[in-house]
């Protein structure tokens, strides 16, 4: 398509007229338009235009001066837009469609809300919740920039030039003022610069009243009493329930208890503050929904160079038919994806480098989510849409994980007793995935946890299964593409016995594995290298136990453990809503012989008192608990539809 012409505009305009100034609605969709085809001189003649459809083109930007001051409805879906600031030229805009622009992010959604005060709908949805988020962020940023201004001016010497000092202030504010998640940094730094420049222009430590919106009323939620006797994710017990959407209020009154010192008397307990309790998975937004079980969560990796294994403060949670992405600092639900009729059991993150049609490279954070339907949904979190579906298994998927060394390699484990390694590939110019199957691993029972071996992730895969702990050779240079379990690991008396369920599995460091089975009240720490070295040609190998950790005596199953290798910490929930924390660095550094008795936890976080949550019972079960790599934030999921977030207070 070449440049637009007056004749084309008249042909596609409504109502029919021979004068551009009479057209109120214009459809320019599907013409393969580029940004340079939008001629401001021509379009500015549309003096009465109120609705414009530019969807399904190839626009990367919108020209800054289109002269459409009366525009109320704008459709820009399915383009290549990477910036939204040009939308400020449409102050009367009420409805906006930006779906299918894969390079727009959550930050862009917030910018849109800030720039367009009359906006009512975005992508067909009510825009009020985003407006509230913008107001909260804007208020906090204004306070922080103003405080930074006062501190900066107090340290300014009289001989410093005013213009240079003011320019230095703007730079320092953009560099130093931080608030909210990394995923919103583009928006927050954009607003910090605007607020700073206004402060400089005004010459005083306050901004225009319009920049400080009234504080919106806090959301509240009341929970009804409920006691749930069991936790179960067996296929026959999984309800096909519809899921949630309600966010529960921050609860600063919640109590956390823990031992003041570690088990050896030298490790102080972590100072953890309860920060948020959320009901973002509720059915029909109902605060009375305490039945939706939450099964898995994972922190988004920090993809910066030199940060291998590091994670951010953004966590993905799944349960019911919803997947939520939450900023732990603010408690904001940044994104929510719903699949009616699905029951999500597992989530996993990766990052892909994508090349645009214009040849630009962009890094995508992709979240894989799977569950009851046997489908893997690949979610482009920043843009907020599902960009691919893999029909992975005919039965439910219990768990999945990405390879730590190959960003496109994904393991899926199903109730069909198979583990499949997929290459999801990189999306093409139409943002479609073409996944291919690389390996099929046969198990004798359902795999519940997958764990590539830390020291050789391209060679071996560990799995905690209903029938024990198994290992497969996953090298891709071997000819056989369907393989059986190579080794089954058995545990000595006092830990998991042969053939007993292993529902918790994670590496504490490059060598030490933490594993848990149901009903025996212990978590086992064992050495991968020593165990594998003693294997010989055997297909059944006894693990070399380094230590045992005391845990709950419950006979209930499916409480998943996790580890924080950088902090030498093991975490696990229990049937009473407790979170058990173990600092095992002193155990790992200990020389043989190790202590035979199970070691007590360093600390136990108690579930908050009922008055803190507005409920009359304290009993809930923590199905999963994870911490980010720096142990700044800890997220726990319960069987009663609550996401609990704690923050570590640094000494």
TrEMBL record:
Localization: Chromosome, Centromere, Kinetochore; Chromosome, Telomere; Cytoplasm, Cytoskeleton, Microtubule organizing center, Centrosome; Nucleus
Keyword Heme found: no
SMART domains, per the entry: LRR_TYP, WD40
Key words, A-Z: Centromere, Chromatin regulator, Chromosome, Cytoplasm, Cytoskeleton, DNA replication, Kinetochore, Leucine-rich repeat, Nucleus, Repeat, Telomere, WD repeat
Chief localization: nucleus
GO molecular function: chromatin binding
WD repeats (start-end): 390-424
Pfam families: LRR_LRWD1, WD_LRWD1
Taxonomy, superkingdom: Eukaryota
Span of domain Leucine-rich repeat and WD repeat-containing protein 1 WD: 265-647
GO annotations of cellular component type: centrosome; chromosome, telomeric region; kinetochore; nuclear origin of replication recognition complex
Keyword Ribonucleoprotein assigned: no
GO biological process, one term: establishment of protein localization to chromatin
Residue stretches making up the Leucine-rich repeat and WD repeat-containing protein 1 LRR domain: 7-195
Similarity remark: Belongs to the LRWD1 family.
PANTHER family noted in UniProt: LEUCINE-RICH REPEAT AND WD REPEAT-CONTAINING PROTEIN 1 (PTHR24370:SF10), OPTICIN (PTHR24370)
Identification of the protein by name: Leucine-rich repeat and WD repeat-containing protein 1
Gene name, Swiss-Prot/TrEMBL: LRWD1
């Amino acid at each position: 398509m070449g440049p637009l012409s007056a004749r084309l505009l008249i042909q596609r305009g409504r109502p029919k007229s021979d004068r551009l100034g009479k057209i109120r609605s214009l459809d320019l969709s599907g013409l393969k338009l580029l940004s340079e085809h939008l001629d401001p001189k021509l379009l500015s003649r549309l003096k009465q235009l109120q609705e414009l459809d530019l969807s399904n083109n190839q626009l990367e930007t919108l020209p800054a001066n289109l002269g459409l001051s009366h525009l109320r409805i704008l459709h820009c879906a399915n383009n290549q837009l990477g910036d939204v600031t040009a939308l400020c030229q449409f102050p009367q805009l009420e409805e906006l469609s930006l779906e299918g622009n894969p390079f727009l992010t959550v930050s862009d959604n917030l910018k849109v809300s800030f720039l367009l005060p009359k906006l009512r709908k975005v992508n067909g949805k009510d825009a009020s919740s985003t407006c509230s988020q913008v107001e909260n962020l804007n208020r906090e940023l204004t306070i922080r920039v103003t405080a930074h201004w006062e501190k900066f001016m107090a340290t300014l010497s009289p001989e410093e030039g005013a213009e240079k000092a003011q320019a230095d202030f703007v730079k320092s504010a953009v560099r130093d003022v931080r608030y909210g998640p990394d995923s919103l940094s583009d928006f927050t730094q954009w607003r910090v610069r605007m607020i700073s420049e206004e402060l400089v222009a005004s010459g005083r430590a306050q901004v225009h009243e319009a920049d400080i919106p009234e504080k919106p009323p806090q959301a509240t939620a009341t929970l009804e009493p409920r006691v749930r006797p069991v936790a179960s994710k067996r296929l026959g017990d999984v309800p096909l329930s519809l899921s949630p959407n309600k966010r529960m209020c921050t609860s600063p009154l919640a109590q956390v208890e823990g031992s003041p010192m570690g088990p050896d008397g030298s490790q102080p307990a972590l100072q953890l503050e309860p920060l948020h309790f959320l009901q973002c998975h509720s059915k029909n937004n109902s605060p009375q929904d305490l039945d939706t079980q939450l099964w898995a969560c994972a922190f988004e990796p920090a993809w910066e160079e030199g940060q291998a294994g590091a994670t951010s403060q953004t966590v993905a949670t799944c349960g019911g038919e919803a997947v939520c992405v939450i900023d732990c600092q603010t408690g904001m639900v940044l994104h929510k994806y719903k699949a009616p009729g699905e029951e999500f059991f597992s989530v996993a993150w990766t990052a892909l480098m994508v090349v645009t049609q214009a040849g630009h490279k962009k890094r995508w954070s992709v979240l894989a989510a799977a569950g009851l339907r046997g489908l893997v949904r690949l979610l482009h979190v920043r843009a907020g849409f599902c960009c691919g579906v893999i029909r992975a298994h005919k039965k439910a998927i219990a768990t999945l994980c990405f390879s730590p060394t190959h960003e496109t390699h994904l393991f899926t484990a199903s109730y069909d007793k198979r583990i499949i390694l997929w290459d999801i590939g990189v999306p093409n110019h139409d943002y479609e995935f073409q996944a291919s199957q690389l390996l099929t691993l046969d198990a004798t029972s359902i795999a519940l946890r997958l764990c590539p071996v830390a020291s050789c992730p391209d060679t071996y895969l560990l799995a905690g299964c209903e029938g024990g702990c198994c290992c497969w050779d996953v090298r891709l240079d071997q000819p056989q593409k369907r393989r059986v379990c190579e080794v089954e690991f058995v545990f000595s008396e006092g830990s998991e016995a042969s053939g007993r369920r292993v529902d918790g599995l994670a590496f504490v460091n490059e060598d030490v594995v933490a594993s848990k089975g149901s009903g025996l009240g212990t978590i086992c720490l064992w050495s991968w290298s020593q165990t594998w070295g003693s294997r010989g040609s055997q297909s059944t190998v006894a693990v070399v136990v380094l230590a045992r950790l005391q845990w709950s005596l419950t006979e209930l199953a499916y409480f998943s453990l996790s580890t924080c290798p950088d902090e030498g910490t093991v975490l696990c929930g229990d049937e009473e809503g407790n979170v058990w924390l173990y600092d095992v660095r002193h155990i790992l550094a200990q020389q043989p012989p190790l202590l035979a008795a199970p070691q007590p936890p360093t600390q136990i976080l108690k579930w908050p008192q009922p008055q803190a949550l507005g409920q009359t019972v304290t009993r809930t079960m923590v199905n999963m608990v994870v911490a980010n790599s720096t142990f700044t934030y800890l997220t726990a999921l319960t069987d009663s539809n609550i996401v609990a977030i704690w923050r570590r207070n640094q000494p």
